[in-house]
């Protein structure tokens, strides 16, 4: 996808996103021009067109933040308490949450047996921890410990592969594949492709 196609498809959405956070048409127009300059300069770095929208809105969000930081340096606009203004559109947040969630099944499959079983039964099949204890014939405290440890190991495995950035509500707003990616990402194309960014 080239800059012209991006302009035709996304300029209206980006303009609305920027104007709702700047509320000054002149500044919004300047920021939009700056955003498209950055898009034009970096378009070759996008490897997957399916991720283009998230990439565009990250550029817009960062450019808006730069705008407010510049004004803050001139003591004209404080940047404090403006975090909510920089949030990505709900659609982008939902897409990134779904992307990370799509990694879970493959990652759960690599958990040690006892933790995989505990996570599958509670998080996927919906058993309570008490029901898990009864199913496995272990104590309630043992079931709780197994689920907690399973969650911790699952989080560790995902963070071994990717650095995730979250907003205040726990939504994923950005991710980058780590250089020292786990062996699973290096050897399994499905995991590698899901974990790689388009930017």
Automatic annotation (TrEMBL):
Q: Which InterPro entries did the record assign?
A: RNA_pol_sigma-70-like, RNA_pol_sigma-70_dom, RNA_pol_sigma-Z, RNA_pol_sigma70_r2, RNA_pol_sigma70_r4_t2, RNA_pol_sigma_r2, RNA_pol_sigma_r3/r4-like, WH-like_DNA-bd_sf
Q: Which residue numbers delimit the RNA polymerase sigma factor 70 region 4 type domain?
A: 104-154
- Among the Pfam families in the record, one is Sigma70_r2
Keyword entries, A-Z: Sigma factor, Transcription, Transcription regulation
Q: Which domain of life is it from?
A: Bacteria
User: Which CDD domains has this protein been placed in?
Assistant: Sigma70_r4 (cd06171)
Q: Domain RNA polymerase sigma-70 region spans what residues? A: 8-72
Q: Does the keyword DNA damage apply?
A: no
Identify its protein family.
Answer: Belongs to the sigma-70 factor family. ECF subfamily.
> What is this protein's name?
RNA polymerase sigma factor SigZ
Task: Name its species.
Answer: Alicyclobacillus dauci
